[in-house]
Amino acid sequence: MDRHPLQACTEKPVPGHSLATRLLIALALLLPLQPAAGDAILEGERHHPVKAKNGMVATSHTLASEVALEVLKDGGNAMDAAVTAGFALAVTQPRSGNIGGGGFMLYAPGNGGAVEAIDYRETAPAAATETMFQDEDGNVVPDRSRFTHKAAGVPGTVAGLAMALERHGTLSLEEALAPAIRLARDGFNVPDRFTEGLEQARERLQRWPATLDTFYKEDGSAWQPGERFRQPELAKTLQRIADEGIDGFYEGKTAQLIVDEMERHNGLITLDDLKNYRPQVRQPVHGSYRDHDIYSMSPPSSGGTHIVQILNILEGFPLSDFGHNSAAGIHHMAEAMKLAYADRAEYLGDTDFVEVPLDGLISKAYGESLRKTIDPDRARPASDIRAGDPGAWESPETTHFSIVDRWGNAVSNTYTINFSYGSGITVTGAGFLLNNEMDDFSAKPGEPNAYGLIGGEANKVEPGKRMLSSMSPTIVRRDGKNFLVTGSPGGSRIITTTLQVLLNVIDHDMNIQSAVSAPRIHHQWLPDEILIEQGISPDTVRLLEDKGHEVVPGSAMGAIQSILIDNEGTLHGGADPRRSTSSAMGY
Ligand code: DON
Questions:
Q1: Does residue 364 sit in the same domain as residue 475?
Q2: Of ligand 1's atoms, which has the minimum distance to the CA of residue 558?
Q3: Which of 1, 73, 121, 239 is deepest in the core (most CB within 10 A)?
Q4: Do 376 and 485 sit in the same domain of this protein?
Q5: What is the CA(9)–ligand 1 centre distance, in A?
Q6: What is the residue-wise DSSP string for 475-519?
Q7: How many helices (H) and strands (E) does the chain have?
Q8: Do the domain assignments include residue 330?
Q9: Using an 8 Å Cβ cutoff, are 78 and 116 in contact?
Q10: C-alpha 52 to ligand 1 mean position (Å)
Q11: Is 335:342 a contact under the CB 8 Å cutoff?
């Protein structure tokens, strides 16, 4: 249960920290950061990982964890469980689980074979234009890329999950969809967090009749904790996929319902856009950090690139000696984060459309050159920082779940509809929400998106292009074996959230639950401030301010669901207590 909208990264974030925002954050901080547990799995053992020998799932929703665990117990592999969880979350957690959005998945076989990335990010419709989110005077109209039918990119989730299952699973699509169809048709008893989410987003959601009909009771009130919530239209939509494969979504009745919805409201997605959508198999970003191999998501996500870049910068600093969340540790992390986010703004975009100097950005040499610019005693103002020159080092070199099966195969998946409940628009007759991922494009060079992220030419809107993401499904190997499976929602904070879990395990020797639960910090170059969660001490904050940092207490960041595999092959699950429905379960 998120106490305040700003605490949920899946809620609309507010990048600029206006006075009103600061007041809201201050108010949020008066409330406990960690909600009272509505989650028996974590209750009383928040910093102890869930342990198991044969299989483990960590998702943001208990029901999704349960159905995925059943698949593992029945002899299915990690991919079977992942695709089952992906569809189940689309039913049980409509704020981020989806079939109307997109995402990224990493698959690492337990036999040490090549790690594969599956990119099922949404694409811009063919009719999209570079200036579609600007008015006639060239001013950005933020609501257009967030809360209208033009906000939606062509959904990738159904094709992506189907492709992943086909490549690495053993179940049929029909079998993987069965639990989701059952949960949609027969319903489930809603947890507190479900009710709170709908109460908080009411104003935004209720303006769309299909959303009101689908997610609220007949009298317009929200379903209350413990009441049974059914989604008959979604059940039918999912059944069409079970019956006809991906054509049951990208063609035929569902496609027509999406296009009818678009045509009624000046949206852009056409039947051809849907028919032409293709997920892509990509090479993940690969780097190393203190004898660990890091695999994470490549463009069109910026996540893996900047995690590896920041790790390269930090590798030369004695983080473990500095101590976890010490002023010195936070200072060095924040300085490295700033440099990476400045590069993100300049260089990152969809590599099918633009050249990204990827090899340079993730090279050790570039990391070293950036490291040398960090003053151990002084914060460098963001205004002094510009993107670096990674080209000089070019050389051959929004809910997340993690699953590991008895063969050691690992799946790390992050997918999203962007904001909580995406655009808020439900496809009439089909029962699912559309994403507002188009806001992740740069509406105009230099203008921040909802997460305060700046972008430029590389991330401008182009037909068929994928908007830049921060999603960072990540798998770490040690001695060639899968070691850590992790990832998080959190908009711009996904990168730094995932990074800190890696550092907590590798540098600070924490168990996975402590690594997930520990307070986090975030810097994204602009705005020039370190955001901190509750739990960073006031004297640490003073030391950081003495170095010239502006430190801003913020809401909880991310919801990272992780699994660690130790040398004996025991699986340790760490679900993020920042979401009351998070759950790691093993057997
Ligand atoms: O792709 C991205 O980076 C964003 N659309 C992710 C949004 C997100 O994580 C929402 N918050 N939890």
A1: yes
A2: 12
A3: 121
A4: yes
A5: 8
A6: EEEETTEEEEEE----GGGHHHHHHHHHHHHHTT---HHHHHHS-
A7: 21, 19
A8: yes
A9: no
A10: 30
A11: no
35: which 2 tokens? 């909600």
Residue 363 lies in a domain: yes
**Residue count (the chain):** 587
**398 has catalytic annotation:** yes
In the chain, % of residues over pLDDT 90:
89
So what's the pLDDT on residue 35?
Answer: 32
Residues 369 and 505 in one domain: yes
491 lies in which domain range? 284-396+471-562
Beta-bridge partner residues of 228: 189
The predicted structure's pLDDT at residue 389 = 84
Å from CA of 413 to ligand 1 middle: 13
CATH code, 502 = 1.10.246.130
Q: CA-to-CA distance for 186 and 191, rounded, in angstroms?
A: 16
- Write out pLDDT tens, residues 4-51: 222 334 333 333 333 333 333 333 333 333 333 333 333 444 468 899
Number of domains, the chain: 2
User: CB 372: neighbour CB atoms within 10 A?
Assistant: 8
Query: Does a structural domain hold residue 531?
Result: yes
- Residues 343 and 204 reside in one and the same domain: no
CB of 471 closer than 6 A to ligand 1? yes
What is the reported pTM? Answer: 0.92
Considering the domain architecture, whether residues 216 and 352 belong to the same structural domain is answered as no
Which entry of 398, 414, 540, 581 is annotated as an active-site residue? Answer: 398
